[in-house]
Amino acid sequence: LFLNQLQKDLEEVKELLTKATRKRLRDVLMTEKHKLELEIKNQPPPKPKDAAEEEKSLLGGYTVKINNYAWDQSDKFIKIYVSLNGVQKLPPENVLVNFTERSFDLLVKNLNGKNYTMTFNNLLKPVSVEGSSRKIKTDTVLVMCRKKREEKWECLTQVEKESKEKEKAAYDTSDPSEGLMNLLKKMYAEGDDEMKRTINKAWVESREKQSKGDTPMDI
Question: What does pLDDT average to over the chain?
Fold first, then answer.
């Protein structure tokens, strides 16, 4: 605002200079002109908006984290399908995907007054940033991750793979009864009340048979 006032003063001084005929008046006006030009030059530049605040104002509404998706793959691509009603009506620049070699971030801005985000870190294998893209379809965003090597992925992320390997190792033992025990423990921990009652009943019946000398159900 102050800078605008200075510029208006300078314009008026310049206009007066074109009309002034007396040397003394012209000298005074020239001095004032130089003074104003120097003052304008030394004005600090307008502060840029804080990037986060600017992004916030652009986004508006509140942000929802996307947890539901489906995925598929071809020889060249990993394809992640994200369902978002009406996404095809947005301007294309409102659907952003940022890729790195082992991750991607999806941001959908201002869809029905909300913003939607999804982040995948630690992708199982490296992808080509340049070859990856996104497509907007009816009620769906399709994220296309270009594989660096044309090979089959057994899952999407390294974490998912490690989790599967641990689970497999727990059941894949040389002692079948130990594997069964591990499986029952997992079923009990994750099961509902009905599942827990069923497992408890099987355990009690097994112990009773063992105590009677019958062939036990070894769990």
Answer: 82
Count Cβ atoms below 10 Å from residue 116 Cβ, excluding itself: 20
What is the model's pLDDT at position 130?
95
- Measured CA to CA, the distance from residue 74 to residue 93 in angstroms comes to 27
Q: What does DSSP say about strands 77-83 and 95-100: parallel, antiparallel, or unpaired?
A: unpaired
Confidence of residue 57 (pLDDT cuts 50, 70, 90): very low
Range 63-147 classified under CATH 2.60.40.790: yes
For the domain bounded by 1-42, which CATH number is listed? Answer: 4.10.860.10
Q: Where are the domains positioned within the chain? A: 1-42, 63-147, 158-197
Edge-to-edge strands, sheet with 103-111 = 62-65, 114-120, 103-111, 95-100
The answer to whether residue 132 scores a pLDDT higher than 70 is yes
Tokens linked to 161 = 């793979």
For 8-72, the three-class secondary structure string (H helix, E strand, C coil) is: HHHHHHHHHHHHCCCHHHHHHHHHHHHHHHHHHHCCCCCCCCCHHHHHHHHHCCEEEECCCCEEE
pTM check: above 0.70: no
